[in-house]
Amino acid sequence: MRRRAVAAASAATVGALLLGGCAGAGEPVVDPSTLERGDVGVQLFQLPWTAVAQECERVIGPAGYGWVLVSPAQEHIVAEPWWASYQPVSARIESRLGTRAEFAEMTARCAAAGVDVIADAVINHMSGRDQPSVGWAGSPYSHFEYPGLFDDGDFHHCGLTADDDIRDYTSREQVQSCELVNLADLDTASPHVRERIVALLTDLIDLGAAGVRIDAAKHIPADDVAAIVGALPDGTRVISEVIRSAREPIAPEEYTAFGEVFEFQYARDLWPQLESGLLADPELDGDRPAHVPSSAAVVFIDNHDTERGEADLTWRDGDAYVMAVALMLADDYGTPVVYSGYAFSDRDAGAPTDAAGRVLGTVCTGDAVGPAASGAAALEDGDRTCVHAWPQIRGMVELRRVAAGADRLPGVVAGDAFGFEREGRAVIAVNPGTEPAEIAVPTSLPDGRYCDVISGGPRIGVDGPCTGAVIEVAGGAARIALAAGATAATHRFATAP
Ligand code: ARE
User: Of the candidates 461, 451, 462, which has an alpha carbon nearest to the alpha carbon of residue 491?
Assistant: First the structure.
């Protein structure tokens, strides 16, 4: 697994905070200095580099996230929709999200805040327009000619369909040699093409990226991806986008030998499981059937494609979305990534820009946000959703850090509600039903009063009373009352005074 070690400095920071006054009920059961910076990522969709840097410093680093996934950085076509980012036209790191210098400054400032930057790498294809044009930074190009970078001989012309577009996803040959929605498809078996792609990715890493998301990896044979990422510096994190489909021959499992993959099945299964109570099944521990092994899985509730398509839940669903994200963060499967985009009513609409076409850098504050404040009615098109800054989500990122390494114990069901413990560290309970519910979740947390991090937000470093609900632990159980649709969770260091 090509995986960068977590930032060492941050563990000491958290330890100091914990020892400084949070472990109210006696000695901590774990040495807080062993707590690692969270493994949780944030996808900051279409956020410019200068704003990402500010987010790292103001919210993401302090909240204990470990990494951010940013949108593609290469020069792209000139077009209003967000998906202009996914049509590169040159090797220049110069886009409407920022300049090369701004990209480098972002990675440095995020690293200083303890946060790795993962770059979105579009290496399957170039642009998808048939007419010659000029890119964002002024580079001339045509569909199959990118001066100084790629020319016609570097592309597939599959000849398997009338227009060379992929028509049949059950054909491996079409998926990996024809064009994805008319995007000029690079011949990644060619040594010259590979060399150019390695140079592009190495440039991003030299600019401070800790790793790459391989966009449209399904459309690149796994051997080609392996050869390309094998030429990158040791420790480069690689996460391949291979959308799982039971009907198709190309599976994410083909891409796990050299890195992680986005496990799309996790989100698809979660809501049906919530509704049927299957998450309480004692057999569901660690690795899951029909999913890649936990260590290879990056999981999410939605991303920039699925929030415009298949996702059952998005930020617009308020409490139900919090429930799903909270369960993902409390779970012991995979490495989670929280999605943070902007409101839209037109699925193609790009993020708001200035008069010159540069995306505006709105920054989220660390307070006064959440589903109540940012429900569908409260946000205008283009407003950032700031999901990663919602106190409920920051509270759960904290809980995950405390729970790291602890077993997920068998869940319990009480009517529509269910909950589970991360052994000795944390407890979560959810009520996806339509009536209030009460549940007693067995736990080895010491008896006492704990603050709910869903209604009250993060607690590490906070000495005062709970700002949210109090959860009583007594006689080996956390007794939790849940309104319809509510989630509650607490951890070893969220003790109430
Ligand atoms: C745009 C226009 C097109 C136009 C094209 C070229 O929408 O009409 O032909 O430009 O001019 C994004 C947008 C696209 C956009 C593209 C380029 O979503 O709309 O096209 O950028 O600007 C498949 C792939 C998967 C891919 C999804 C979208 O397997 O890799 O399609 N996801 C990534 C990104 C996208 C991005 C691209 C790839 C391209 O996350 O944001 O596209 O860089 C089944 C299959 C899946 C398949 C899915 C949808 O589920 O199992 O494999 O996903 O159907 O077809």
Answer: 451
